[in-house]
Design goal:
By secondary structure, the chain is mostly helical. It has two domains: 2-70, no CATH class; 74-136, no CATH class. 70% of the residues lie in helices and 8% in strands. A hairpin with a 2-residue loop joins β2 (9-13) and β3. α1 packs antiparallel against α2 (48-70), α2 crosses α3 (72-94) and α3 runs antiparallel to α4. The N and C termini lie far apart (59 Å).
Amino acid sequence: MIFDRTGRIDLDWGPISLHLAGRAVFFLWVTLALLAISGFAVLVSRKRELVTRWTTWALIVPVVGLPIWSGRGATAALAAVLAVLAVLEYARLARLARIDVALLLVLAIAYPLLAWLAPDLLEPAPLAAQTHTILAPSCPACG
């Protein structure tokens, strides 16, 4: 592991090689510094609620940060996983019909994948949603 004044990170561990530079590395250092400073303050306060909240943020950093720093594919996968979890929770709370849950699950997976693989296909999506919103009340089959 090599650290220099530019903030680059160069890791060479056998078959694993990681070379990072630029804004992503800057935000990594800022995030780690903020977590360290706030972690010290939380430790000094000894408040259970603050420890729980700080721990949550400390766990969010690698779960969200690593896919984002890894690239668009990993970020799309993270977005799809989070969208599926959100749809399942919403469907449970709202007691949605199975067909609605199925449609939302397809969209939860399709949107991040399309954003990654074919972002141009998402340009008409807001227009399609608006058209459906306008036409749905006049369509008895649309529910």
